[in-house]
Design brief:
The complex is a heterodimer of chains A (125) and B (408). Chain A is mostly beta strands. Chain A is 7% helix and 40% strand. The chains are: A mainly beta (125), B alpha/beta (408).
Amino acid sequence: MFIIQDYINGLKNGKILGSKCNKCGAVSIPPHPLCQNCGDFEVDLFETKGYGELKNFTIIYVPPKSFETKPPYVVAIIKLEEGGAVLGRLRGVNPYVIESIKIGMKVKFDPWLERDNVIVAFSPA
Amino acid sequence: MEKVDIISVGMTRFGKHPEKTGRDLILEALLETIKNVDKGIDIKKEVEALFVGYFTPTFYEHQAHYGPLVTEWLGISGIPAFRTESACASSSAALSAGFFAISSGIYDVVIVIGVEKMTTLDTSEVTDALAVAADDIFDLSTGITFPGLFALMAQEYFQKYGENWENLQAVTIKNHYNGSLNSKAQFQNTISSIAKKTALKKGCSFKNDLDFLNSQFNPFVAYPLRLYDCAPISDGAAIAILANSKISKRFTDKPIHIIGIGIGTDSLALANRPDLTTSRAVINSSNAAYKMAKVGPKNIDVAELHDCFSINEVLLSEDLGFFEKGHGLVAIKEGRTSLQGDIPINTDGGLKSKGHPVGATGIAMIHEIWLQLRGEAGSRQIKGNPRIGLTCNVGGSSASSFVFIFEN
């Protein structure tokens, strides 16, 4: 059984991990220690390729105090090729030009470190 | 299972109370609650337990362990008491605990409290405090905020149902109108009067409400949501006293009966939900409450829904079955949820206008249903002698949901 640190370590190594149920085959990204479909305990971790498409986005104008990035910045829901979806920052787009951010655009995993915390982020592929 | 009644309610005005701490707000609300018991009550003699909902007192007041703190402050130290937490639904969790305590037959009279003292922190610090209701690992690490999570829901709703931000403003405009009739509300101005004041002050003019809401005076918080799509930061407390229905007539001839309760959950991590326009927590909790009360959405005469952000009133009204998916905004624009509509929603101004001291919100909703079902809501009283009311109070991004159904 994996612990959440395995997922975070994966991110630091540039990989988004997923889990796959040995019993029913259901895929969960991000990974879950128990199958979200059938509840089975036997799940295996796997590495996604880190490619996906933009499902949805918002632009944050009022950030939390604990966050260092200057607003505005884009946070998006990224649907990964292997299934499942993750929340992540979208880099390489202009938050002042909303029309430049297109639903369905192809993106790749492109994280960075901030005070040793990994920021899940994507860039246009 | 014993039946549970509400025998009194009370609340502070919501808004900024710079001089008062959480316990001061609770005491103020309690004095009103005691005054509102039609036949009087000796709380020291009658109250057997206390449950207090407060989301994050550790952030705002460097204080936890609120149960015994409150019993001491209210002069009833010694009785069982604890704090309940389910983010913005923390006091619905307190009401649930109180309901279970009486329905199990263990206690006959309990006090349930909701409170939050938020204005000790500035906006970015409050954003941080509220954020702990989201998944720290999967969500918060991206720099998302609560307005951001609901903005994502709004985006998906607009795309899926061909709706837009302009139409969404009907929620804000309605709730500000209702709030203008509520002396307990934080904001008691209609959008039109706010626009008029702004125009005078800034030397500009607005064609209508939407023109104002579309202006620089309504800045973006998280695209597409702007300031007036968001409930404010507030201080406040709200209280209800519950009693076993076998003895409630000792306290009032007009108790409100709790006939349905439902609680549900969904994933905190927003991306893990297949459809952002619906919440499994809300669906499950409403189904359970309807089943227990033996009623359906068509039987509800008045409802209080958790409009922490404008879009959520729409999403909840659909998940609760008042309207078909994708039809909620049309219904609001047609006036069906106004004070004169067939299903008035947020007659007290909602979280947007009444204010949203998050831990107090669930019981403040019950406060309004109490007034409406007893015919005591004054200038915002709905017509036709409403008989059945519903509250839906959610935690975080609707990852927890509490639905209660009441009958007079």
